[in-house]
Amino acid sequence: MAESFFATLKNELIGAQPWPSRSAAHTAFEWIEGWYNLHRLHCSLGYRSPADYEAALAA
Q1: Which of 13, 25, 37, 42 is a plausible cystine mate for 19, CB 3.0–4.6 Å?
Q2: Please, are residues 30 and 38 in contact by the beta-carbon 8 Å criterion?
Q3: Are residues 41 and 11 in contact, defined by beta-carbon separation less than 8 angstroms?
């Protein structure tokens, strides 16, 4: 369900305004692609974030 929500968010963000530059568009997606995807909990990872899961594997 979260993936569907963020797909909708991305589509609305793209259609909401014309982007003055490619870097401005990239900045708009930084939070979703950077923070959210690394820190949200995944049931397939035992309700751990990908960052936590990878850190546990490396330890």
Answers
A1: 25
A2: no
A3: no
